[in-house]
């Protein structure tokens, strides 16, 4: 990528001005690197900024022939769209080749979620060990379930982000946007007990300390949290995906099913647009359809 200053400038813009996450920057870098490799192989001597819509379509066809999924191709097209939009705004292009490109249609998949009864069983049947790590794991599962926060947001929680008096958490979301998430008095008790144990186990704790840590006292890794979530979901559900994000889906779906306002859910989840939240209404509609089919004599 060192030979592509146009890509480097674009990624720098996303990092410092748009404040994209490291994960998103890496995904864009990989997609653009792959397109660069295609152009160098198929159209040597052609710069990225002089690529045409025909050449981009040819790349998309090659991806399809390689059996890359429509979802992955769509993401790569999004990376190119953002890249050429940036250079159009910088007046580096006379024609934006992406204006004639249509991404492949992606079959809609409903977000998977854990049934409320299964989550109740997880916390009711005392599946967590009576140790500091067991109490930590329980609080991790509870916070994902009752706040809908993202994995990165939970890993980044510090002691100073917890407001026990007002029962709320401050989290740092995508693009470094802060938001406040409320929690119940019951969860307040769990947090208080955990923090008391935390301060006893790690006496040097400060207000800036991360509250979820590995055995050595350092900030817990995201992969470790992922393994914790999968471990406990394995005990109560057989759904395909058993990850922190599934608990986020579970939070949103159950809030909607219980009558919560969709705009309030949008704010709690930290979505930038209502469209991202509306995907959860499909789960609610499917639930209504099932009830209708089971209950109506003419269904």
Helicity level = 55-70%
The separation of the N and C termini measures 59 Å
Q: Give Rg in angstroms.
A: 23 Å
- CATH topology of the largest domain, by name, is hpI Integrase, Chain A
Structural class: mainly alpha
State the strand order across the main sheet: 1-2-3
Total strands: the figure is: 3
Q: Specify the CATH architecture of the largest domain.
A: Orthogonal Bundle
CATH superfamily of the largest domain: Intergrase catalytic core
Task: Report the total helices.
Answer: 13
Mean pLDDT, all residues = 90
What is the global morphology?
globular
What is the CATH class designation of the largest domain? Mainly Alpha
SSE run: HHHHHHHEEEHHHHHH
Largest sheet: 3 strands, antiparallel
**Weakly predicted, low-confidence segments:** none
Q: Can you tell me the number of structural domains?
A: 2
Strand content: under 5%
Write down the oligomeric state. single chain
Question: What do you see in this structure?
Answer:
This protein has helices at residues 5-16, 22-42, 53-65, 70-89, 116-124, 132-147, 151-155, 185-201, 222-233, 244-257, 262-269, 274-278, 281-295, and strands at residues 162-163, 168-172, 178-182. A hairpin with a 4-residue loop joins strand 1 (162-163) and strand 2. It has 2 domains: 5-100, Orthogonal Bundle (DNA polymerase, domain 1), CATH 1.10.150.130; 116-293, hpI Integrase, Chain A (Orthogonal Bundle), CATH 1.10.443. The protein has 299 residues and is mainly alpha-helical. The chain has a 3-stranded antiparallel sheet, with no helix packed on it.
């Amino acid at each position: 990528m060192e030979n592509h200053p146009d890509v480097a400038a674009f990624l720098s813009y996303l990092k410092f001005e748009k404040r994209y996450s490291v994960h998103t920057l890496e995904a864009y870098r990989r997609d653009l690197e792959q397109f660069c490799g295609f152009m160098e192989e198929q159209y040597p001597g052609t710069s990225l900024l002089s690529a045409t819509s025909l050449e981009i379509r040819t790349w998309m066809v090659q991806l399809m022939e390689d059996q890359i999924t429509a979802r992955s191709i769509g993401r790569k097209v999004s990376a190119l769209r953002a890249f050429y939009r940036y250079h159009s705004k910088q007046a580096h292009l006379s024609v934006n080749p992406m204006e004639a490109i249509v991404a492949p249609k992606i079959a809609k998949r409903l977000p998977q979620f854990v049934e409320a009864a299964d989550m109740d069983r997880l916390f009711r049947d005392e599946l967590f060990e009576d140790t500091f790590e067991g109490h930590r794991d329980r609080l991790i599962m509870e916070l994902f379930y009752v706040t809908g926060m993202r994995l990165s947001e939970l890993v980044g929680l510090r002691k100073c982000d917890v407001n026990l008096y007002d029962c709320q958490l401050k989290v740092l979301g995508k693009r470094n946007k802060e938001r406040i998430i409320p929690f119940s008095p019951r969860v307040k008790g769990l947090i208080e007990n955990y923090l008391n144990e935390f301060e006893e186990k790690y006496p040097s704790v400060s207000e800036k300390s991360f509250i979820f840590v590995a055995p050595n006292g350092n900030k817990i890794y995201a992969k470790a949290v992922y393994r914790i979530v999968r471990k406990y979901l394995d005990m109560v559900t057989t759904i395909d995906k058993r990850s922190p994000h599934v608990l986020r889906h579970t939070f949103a779906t159950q809030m909607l099913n219980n009558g919560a306002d969709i705009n309030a859910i949008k704010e709690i989840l930290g979505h930038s647009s209502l469209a991202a939240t509306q995907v959860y209404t499909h789960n609610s509609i499917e639930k209504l359809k099932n009830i209708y089919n089971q209950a109506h004599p003419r269904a």
